[in-house]
Amino acid sequence: MTQEGWPMSSPIVVGIDGSAHAWRALDWAADYADRHRRPLLLVHGSRALLDEGTIPPDALRRLIAEREDLLGEARQYALKLRPEINVETRLVPADPARALVEESEHADLVAVGSRGQGGFEGLLFGSVGLYVAAHARCPVLVVPRAAPYPSGAPAEIVIGIEGLDDERTSVGWAFKEAASRGSRILALHAVGGEFSPRRRVIEDLELSESLAGYRERYPDVAIDQLVSERTPARALVEASENAALVVVGARRRRAPLAGMVLGRVNHTVLHHTRCPVVVVPDSD
C-alpha cells in the first residue's frame, strides 16, 4: 500500500540477510528514503530457495517461511524507525548479489552492509557488497559495521576528486545529498606524495575548477577544499573518521576480474572506511 504523495517508482533497495551490518544498512536506507520521499524495498536473495529437488518440499516450505519472517521483521523495524515510509519486501530464489544488481535496474539507491576489515593489507574479493558496488546500475550505499546511526553522523560529506570529466555524476550526487542533509562538503584531492608550494597552488586552482557551478547551484552548502599529500585511498579513509558519507565515482570498464571495475582506491575505501560509502556509477 502506498503512502499518499509517495512515488512507487525508483525505490531504495536494501539487502537483508539477518546480520548486524545489514540492519545498520537498513538504518541508513530508511533515513535516506524518508528524506527523499522514496519507498523501501527489502530484498532477501538465496540460492537455497530454488526448487531444484535437492531438498524435500516440506523443508523448502519451512525455509521459505523462515526467510519471509526475516523480511517481515526487517519491515517492522523500518516502519518503527520511519512510520511515514512505504515498505515492501521481496524474497528472491537467486544469488543475493545478483538479485540486488537486478533490482538496481529500477532503483534510486541500493544499500548493503559490510563487515569491513582493519588495516590496509589483504583486500577481500567476492563479497556481496563488493559485487553489488561494482555492477549495480544505480548508486550503492555500503554501510560498514563501525558506522554510526544516521542521527549521530557528522554533518560532512567527503567527495573524492581526481579532476576528471566523468566525476560530474558523483560530485552532483554528493552536493544533492549534502543539501538534503544540511551537511557541508569536503572536496578532497590527494596527490600521493610531497609537492612544492607552487604545485599546491595549481592543485588548489584545479580543484576549484572541478567544483565550478556547484557553488552557485547549491548556495546553502558550505564547501571545504583539501589537497592532500596522502595517497587517495588513505586520505579518503582518514577523512571518513569525521564524515557522514564518503562519495566516490566508479567508471564503467571491462576487467578480467569480477569487481575490479571499481579500481584499487575504491576497493580500499570500501573495506576500511569508518563511515558509509556511496559508489556512484558514471553516466552511460
From TrEMBL:
Enumerate the transmembrane spans. Answer: none
Give all residue intervals belonging to the UspA domain: 8-144, 157-281
List the CDD domains hit by this protein, alphabetically. USP-like
Q: Which domain of life is it from?
A: Bacteria
Q: Which Pfam families match?
A: Usp
- Protein family according to the UniProt entry: Belongs to the universal stress protein A family.
Question: What protein is this chain from?
Answer: Universal stress protein
Which lineage do the record's taxonomy fields give for this organism?
Answer: Bacteria, Bacillati, Actinomycetota, Actinomycetes, Streptosporangiales
